[in-house]
Each structure stands twice: as C-alpha cells, then as structure tokens.
Design goal:
Two copies of one chain form a homodimer. Chain A is 41% helix and 17% strand. Chain A is of the alpha+beta class. The two termini of chain A are 19 Å apart. Chains A and B meet through β4, β7, α8 and α9 of A and β4, β7, α8 and α9 of B.
C-alpha cells in the first residue's frame, strides 16, 4: 500500500488514459475527476473505474479524442453540448462558464449534454456550480440494470440524481444518489470483495430476490429504491437526461452486451438556479437554519459530510492506494 | 349517494368557500381545483379537504381574500409571486402565462411562490404546463410530519414533488408523490375509515413503528419513503420550496399546533422546460418509445393512468358524492 498525493495519482491516471486512447486534454479532465472520487472516498467511482475507462476506449465504443461542441443556437437560458461520443466530463467542462453566466443573468439555466458516456460520480459534476454560488440539480441515465416497479425486465438505468446547495461558511451541501436501491459500482465492488448486499437491492437471473452481489451482476438486475416512488424517479431521470437531450435511453444498450463493446451515448441534464436572482432573501442563513434543525433533531451526518471528511484526510495524509491497484495502473502504461 | 356533474359540485364548493371567507375569484380557482382532485379519484385531496379549507379560513390563519402579487423585478427567466398568506393556487394561476412565455422564450423558466398555503394535490399544478407542451417539475413543503433518516423528531414536511411530461397524442405523463412513505391525506383518510397502514410508514407518539393510522396522527410521525434516499429528497424539497422562495420551513409550524390555528406560509417552486428550445429532436416520439418499452416489460400502468381513467369515468357518469359529504358541505352553507 502506498500513500500518494492527489497530483501524483492524477499524473499516473492521466498517463494511463493517454496511453490507451485519450487526447491529452480529455485525459487531464477525466483523470482529475477520477482521482477526485478516490480522494473523497468513493471507492466504487474512483480508481476502481480506470479499467472500465480503458476497456471502453479499447473497444472503440467511446471516442477518447472527442472534442465536445457547444450548440451555437442554444436558447437564451440553455447551454447544449454535443459530447460527440466522448466522455461527459469534457462536455460539462465546456458548458460550465456559459451556464453559470446564463443562470446569473436570468435566474435559472439548463445544461443538456447528448451522446456522452458517464462512468464517474455525479456529485463532482454539481460541486463546481455550488462553489459558484448556484443551486444545481443533475440527472444522468446509464445502462439497463433496473427493473421498473411492476415490470419484469431491467429496462431502466441506475440513473443517479445529484443536488447541490451553496453555503456561506461551509462546503456545499451535496447529495448524489442512484435511483436504484444501490449503485451498480457499489455492487460490483461488493462482488469483487465477496460481500453480500441487503435484501430488496436486486434479483438474480431468474428474477428471484438475492443478496449475492455476483448473482445480481451475472444476468440479474437491480430494483429501484423506495418501491414505486423510486421507480417513478428512475423514469423521470430517463426522460430528463435522455429524451430532453436527444440521447439514448438506458435500454437502448442491451443488458447482455459486455461493457464497452457497444456505444452507449446517453445524456445528462443540469438545472442551475441563482438564489440571488429569484427573490430568496437571506438564503445562506435560511439554509443554515434548517440544517442546524436537522442536526438538533438527532441527525448525525448531513448528505456529503463523509465525502468532505474523506477529502480533508486524503489531502492531509495522502490517498491510500493498494499494491494491487498500483500494479493494475502500471499494467496499463 | 348522489351522482353530480363537475360544474354542480364546483358551484357548491365555491359557495362554501365564499360563505366561509374567500373572495369570489379565489373561491372559483380553489373550488375548481378541489373538485378536479375529487373527479380524478384522489379522495384524500378532494372534497375530503373542504373542512380543512374552512377551518384554515375560520381560524384566520389564511387570508381567503389575499390578492397574490407578481414581483415586478423578477429576473428574465423567473416569475416570483407573493401569495400574501393566501392559498397557493391563485398565486400559481397568476404566474402561469408569464412563466409559460418565459420558458418558451429562453428554454427554461422558474416559478417561485412564497407565503402560501397548499392543501391540494400537486399534479393539478403541473398538468396545465404539460398541456402547454412544457416539461414541469414542482416542489411544495408543508407542515412537520416526517422524521428525517437518522433523526428523532418530525422536522420535515411530507413535501410532495410532481413531474409532468407532455405527449403528442396522449394525456400528459404525470407523477405526484409525497416524500413520506405515504401522503398525510391518505393516512388521515385511513384513520377516518378505520384502515391500518403498511409497516415502515410511520411511528407512534413514542417513536415506535406502528401500522395504526390513528396512532400516527395522534402525536406520531411519518417516515420518508425509501430510507436515506427519500429523506434526502424530502430535505431537497424544503430547500427548493422554502429556502429558495423565501418561505417558512415545514418545521417552523410546531407539529403540536392544531391545523389552521397558526399560519404556515410555506412555498412552492416550479421548473419549466420547453423541449422545443433545448435541442431535443423527436421529443414526443422518444417519450412514446420509452413508455412503450416499459409497458412491454410488464408494467401495467404508467404514473397518472389511473387518475386519467377516473377522470374520464367521472366526466361521463358523474362524480359520486356520499350523503354524509353532501350533508357536510350543506352544513357549511
């Protein structure tokens, strides 16, 4: 096990991506994103994902050299980006400044990204907007892993949504949650480490409930969180992230297809609201009021708190990387 | 039991409201809203609510004569309305046309309503926007009934969110769901009719799980749907509907206070997106594609289908009103 700095790890991961088919600019953005997830303690969305990036690139499913393009005809409060079959993060990066400016000018703006691949954690997409003092809501669709409430087949994606609120004296409040009972990355990690999952999380290849992570992965499927209500949210994410952006639905990639062997080209939608432009007086004070009340009622940890603590520790003590992971990364170089 | 037409019922309910302290204009809007919920089969949000409207008016907590005011300084893509301690529906009605025009002009717009009282179903708020060919997302906070995940006290509201998508040849797809495991109106109705509720829905006055609806109402509390994920959504609704609009949080009305005896003054936020202005090609066709796929996967009923069927039956056969309800309504005249 080695303790590494953020920059050291970004350097290695960036080199891996460049060596395996990414442009240098895209590799810098995606390596920074990937190591940020690792830094914040999201094992399922950090270095664990490097092999998926590499397999996506090698299969030719994703264009690592894609140059995302801003749509010059976007409406006044919209920023539309064509990711051109690249990863979502460079497209989002391109949209960021115009989207912030539009939200500040008109009170609200929206980013649509089409034809993209999103392998990372969603809170990293919304945090920069909250740092720019905007409220942000983001939705991403993925690949078909989730059986809708009342259905028999996995036609919906794990479809995360993220929500970020700026605070005056604290880091932003951020939640990021899959619309499935558990994120697929977490289940993949549980399978790899031989852990079981809670009941209600998934079914096996025969549609029977199971707590064996590997059985969910081997032809099984996930269930939405919270029954029919979570299922409705999963569908909402498909409509926002895919239908509204002009991207593929999750089900338009067959679940039997191996990862990376066929293009996904799904979408992302981000809504930005500027509290200063919509008549919210004392917004920061009011956010503090309700969060203080939650803590007083017995809530021990606000959404995103643990990630922030992990980040502080990683930045002061270094990021712990296992020998096996280092060997994997070196193997890609 | 009597079968009545929509207009007959609106006439009666409107008269009840006027007799008990509403302006004629407000009474027309709210009676139409209330009877629409009854027509669509939402027993918990239809005529059942008339007595709550009346008690709110009689206590002086709500101003039945309030004239909502549009904020003349709203940003380009925002419509802000001060409900002036009236019910939310007249404020929303006032915002509707400018909000639709702003969404069509800039691709996205937002409505904020502050200092309002919302006793009705939320899908009725979003449906007109979907009929105007916009995608709509709405959030309302309420009174403290829900214990946050990890907390000990009911500090959050039942906080519904609604989502509506226009369709080309079908009625809009609409879901409307409380962020609690069950809507309070449904539990009140269960208590009134002596039914029990599922486990996981609520706790009694001692914080112990219960399936007795009356025990949840008598000093008990509700739980969020879907564990910590539903709890995060409940908090998100507080932040969107209250902090961003400049309204009270749900907890700022004590849960021990009898309904209607103290002002609530909560808020509502609606996000509108025009599919035609954000580069979504073939939007209607794409919506059909995923809904057809859901049905093919075994889903029997899409969100909002049952309400639409109830509406069609009510409009052709009449709305069934019990003798007891008729007596209640007549008692208020």
């Amino acid at each position: 096990m080695a303790l590494m700095t953020f920059d050291e790890l970004v350097h290695i991961v960036r080199s891996v991506f460049v060596r395996n088919g990414m442009s240098d600019g895209n590799a810098m953005i995606i390596a920074t994103n990937c190591v940020s997830a690792e830094r914040d303690g999201a094992a399922s969305h950090g270095l664990f994902r490097v092999s998926q990036y590499v397999s996506s690139l090698k299969s030719g499913a994703v264009d690592g050299h894609a140059k995302p393009a801003l749509d010059p005809d976007s409406a006044a409060s919209v920023v539309s980006v064509d990711a051109r079959n690249g990863f979502a993060q460079p497209a989002l990066e391109l949209s960021r400044q115009p989207a912030i400016e539009k939200a500040r000018a008109a009170g609200v703006s929206i980013v649509t990204i089409r034809d993209s691949h999103h392998l990372s954690a969603l809170w990293l997409d919304v945090e920069p907007f909250a740092r720019a003092k905007l409220v942000a809501l983001a939705f991403v669709n993925s690949i078909p892993r989730v059986v809708p409430w009342g259905g028999q087949e996995p036609v919906l994606g794990t479809n995360p949504m993220a929500f970020a609120v700026p605070r005056e004296h604290e880091p932003p409040l951020i939640f990021d949650q899959a619309s499935s009972a558990m994120a697929f990355g977490e289940i993949a990690l549980a399978a790899k480490t031989g852990h079981s999952v809670s009941s209600g999380v998934g079914v096996d290849r025969h549609g029977q409930p199971t707590t064996i992570a590997q059985a969910i992965i081997d032809g099984g499927a996930l269930l939405p969180f919270g029954g029919h209500k979570g299922s409705a949210i999963t569908l909402m994410v498909e409509l926002l992230a895919a239908a509204l952006t002009g991207s593929n639905f999750s089900f338009e990639v067959g679940s039997s297809v191996a990862p990376g062997t066929r293009t996904v080209r799904t979408g992302e939608l981000v809504i930005l609201i500027d509290p200063r432009r919509i008549g919210a007086s004392n917004f920061y004070q009011r956010v503090d009021v309700i969060l203080d009340k939650l803590m007083a009622s017995g809530v021990k940890r606000l959404p995103g708190n643990r990630r922030h603590q992990n980040r502080m520790r990683s930045l002061s003590e270094g990021i712990a990387v296992s020998d096996a992971m280092l060997a994997t990364l070196n193997g890609y170089l």
